[in-house]
Each structure stands twice: as C-alpha cells, then as structure tokens.
Amino acid sequence: MNHFTLSRLFRVGRSTAHRITQEVVKVLWDVLVAEYLPVPDEETWKTYALEFYHQWQLPNCCSAIDGKHIVIQCPPKAGSVYYNYKKQHSIVLLAACDANYNFVAVDIGAYGGNSDGSVFSNSEFGRRLREGNLDLPPATCLPYSNQLSPHFIVGDAAFPLMNNLMRPYPGRNLPTIKDYFNQRLSRARRTIENSFGIMVARWRILKVPLVMTPEAAENITKAIIVLHNFSNKHARRVYAPPTFPDHLNHTGQFVDGEWRTVADPLPSVTADSISRNHNAPRNAYQTRDNLAQYIIKNRLPFAVSQ
Q1: 196 with 203: CB under 8 angstroms?
Q2: Which of 17, 143, 233, 242 is most enclosed, with most CB atoms within 10 A?
Q3: pLDDT (tens digit, 9 = 90+) per residue, 227-258?
C-alpha cells in the first residue's frame, strides 16, 4: 500500500502519511533490533555453526551471506549511482542468515550502481570479517576427525575466498571432490536465498519499486528485517512452515518452497559489485582444499542436490 492510498484511506495529507510511516518504521527498528538482530558473540556463532551442521551438514559454517537489490524510484539528481545492471534504480541489501532463515547481520543502503567500490569490502561486516574482528569461534576439529578447520561464512562466487569465507570452486566439469564440495556448500548457501524469498513473500511491499527516497527505503527495509526475524521466531508455523522454504524430500533432493510461487527472488547483486578483489591468500585455498577432502570422505547417505 503506497502513501497516496494511505492518505486517502485515513483522510490525511500524503506528506503526513509518509511522515507517520517513517516514524513507525524507525521506532520498530529501534525497539526490536537489540533483541531480534543483536551483534553475535562467539557463543552465538557456535550455536549457529551447530545448527548448520545438524540441518545442512556443513561443519564449522556459521552463516550464509548474499547481496540483493531493493528497487526504488529514481532519486532526484541522482545520476547513475543508483542505476543497476537490471536497468532499475536500487539500494543494496547485504545480509547474512542462520540455518533457520533468520537474518544475523545486515548492511543496507549502498548504491545500486555501486560506483564507490565493492559492497562487501566497504561494509562494516566485510571489514570486520576481513580483519578477523567478527568474534567467530577459533578453529576446531571437524566432527569425528583430528582435522582442524576455521569457522567460516559461506557465499557464492561473487565473494572473495578467505580463511573465514568459503566460496565454491570456479569452473565447470570439475573433479569429483570439487564438485561434491560445491554441492555441499550450496546446501548451506541456499538458506540466504530462502531467507530473502520468505521475506519478500510475506512483506510484499518489496515486490514493487519503493516510491520514496533512498533514506526512506532504507528505513522501511530495516523495519522489515527485524519484523521478519520477530515473525520467524514467534510464529514459525504460520510465517514459514516446513514446505514454505526449499526443503529436502526422502531421497535428499531439494523441492522448491512455496514462497517461489508467491514472489520472485529479489534481483541479485553482480559479482563485480559485491567484490572486485578475488586475490585470495594461499592459505585460504589450502583451507578450502582441506575442507573438500574432509567432505568427500564424509559423504551424505543420500544424493546431494543443488
């Protein structure tokens, strides 16, 4: 429902409807953020890692990360800074989630056109992850082995490879070990796509361009993020029942979730916009190779499907 409709419905001016809406979403963020989007500490990351292992069978994975476009109207005198590759104007939502589709960290408001460098590198989350200040747990032995591995976040090919950020092996027709690693990584990474999908399906204002300033769109998005977490934690059976996100059948194959029939995914941010630096340190390659070796030796009892 846009501000014009609200103004007619409640018989107030359009600017008044806009002002009231912004006041409400700011209060929602201020009141809910501390409880429903707290900064994770080491113990919280450990809990997330256990959930990813038990639910998606990827050990030492603490979170999944991705970037999406929140489409807005063209801001006055904005030039091309918000103009993205989809030929739309947008702000960028960079978000990480846990194994249960709750957002655990967000960065909102980067230019859709991303003329000022990569979204991930310029975000507070990316900086802290890169500098090792995210309070991730120390390296631990992988389950049922003596092999040490750092705790890490998973992302797609748009993200840089680091010791604490795993991305898939690039290319096609990969050796079995690399292909199987990519498939297992995809299982965990699928959680962030579903988090975005559930959010858009339930908060359908995101299905259409937000006719407001970038600052107002950012406030709306922040409120939706905390309301998503609130609803997912307190009314999961109604908000995101088992068949609503993508889920596994009895053979281990993924079945598309019901949200896909309700809403299209938000436009993805291009790899060049997420990160322009893919020069990974040598030990990051070794960390990924060691994890791939462990995963191929500990196959799942059923077929893995992306």
Answers
A1: no
A2: 17
A3: 999 999 999 999 999 999 999 888 878 999 99
